[in-house]
Amino acid sequence: MDIEIHKSISDLTGKKTLSFPEKNIVPPTMPYLWTTTDSRNSALSTLAPVSVALVGASAIHGDKNLQSFFKSFHPPSWAIRDVRLYTALDVATIAPLGYASYLVYKNGGGFDYSDTTAALGIYGLNLVSGLALIPAFKKKNLKWIAINAGIVAATAIAASGAFGKIDKMAGYLIAPYALWTTYYANCCSKRPSS
């Protein structure tokens, strides 16, 4: 006759929450805890991508010459020409990235795991590449803009896939940004009509 010995897992209040046999010591699912520290950290994580978007927007909005270059830069008829609409879409798609990166950090075990470190490294490369577009626009270097936009799109797609493997919600949150940067890279690969 097989006798099973049961142990219990208690929550923070000491109440019995789950029983399982000793031979299966790890419960089937770990409890998911979100604390006020997590809320603070996710809010702080959101500041990085939003800051990148706002720095880029302010660089374009503050320079009338750069605005006219930006408008002439998108020759396809389907491309967005209104700088304000473009900026709004840019900020709207980039805003969830910080929260998504925090979900990956928290649920992926932090920098102790190579897949989490790689995913966050790709995300960091994406942010740096996005910032590198500002000097390219200021110099009006079309080749540099097109190459950099391709790097931004490629790292956004890679980050979306890497985030999705660690936390599905994080992958879903970054997917609109990956689509937006792909659209942007496609626009940048077109040369303005002379």
Automatic annotation (TrEMBL):
Biological-process GO terms, alphabetical: tetrapyrrole metabolic process
Q: Tell me where it resides.
A: Membrane
- Please indicate if the UniProt record lists Mitochondrion as a keyword: no
Question: Which InterPro entries does this UniProt record tie to the protein?
Answer: TspO/MBR-related_sf, TspO_MBR
Give me the Gene Ontology terms describing cellular component: mitochondrial outer membrane
Q: Where is the signal peptide?
A: none
Q: Which family does it belong to?
A: Belongs to the TspO/BZRP family.
Query: What is the protein named?
Result: Uncharacterized protein
